[in-house]
Amino acid sequence: MKKTYWLIVFLVLFAGTLFAQISANSDAWVSVESANLKSSTWFFASNNGIVRYGNQVRVLQVSGNWAQVQTQATPRLTGWISTNNLVTRRITGTGSGVTASETAQAGRGFNRDVENAYRANSTLNYGDVDRMEMLEIGEQELLGFLRDGRLTTGESR
After folding, report:
1. Could you tell me the end-to-end alpha-carbon distance of the chain, in angstroms, rounded to an integer?
2. d(CA 71, CA 78)
3. Number of domains into which the chain is organized
4. Span 63-74, pLDDT tens digits
5. Is 35 within 8 Å of 81 (Cβ atoms)?
6. Range of the domain at 68
């Protein structure tokens, strides 16, 4: 019993080292197709700029699930981004003609085989999903929806 307990403790600690966390004064790379750099950690804060898949950033500070970053390409461009959109390992291109969107999806465990397996199920209507993915709802429209419905807008400004 003791051996099992210590083995589990060791495995948990070891696994924790495999998943590096975003921390201040370190480099990170954008792991989504594109993301807005916000002026604060509020979801509806104004946008300072955009970063794209594979862009390297310097993490200046971390606050909860947000990181304030400075872009390497344009050091005067800084802003806040969700830590979910960053990874601590350099992203390298495959050179195989794969798009940034496809690479980002693959990084999340979604690939052509998975998509084909889901599409093979004839009872599922993926046309509706495809149309929903093409919808673009602006932040102001979303904010208006939240206000009209008297819903909270999340974090305070």
Report:
1. 50
2. 6
3. 1
4. 999 999 999 999
5. yes
6. 20-148
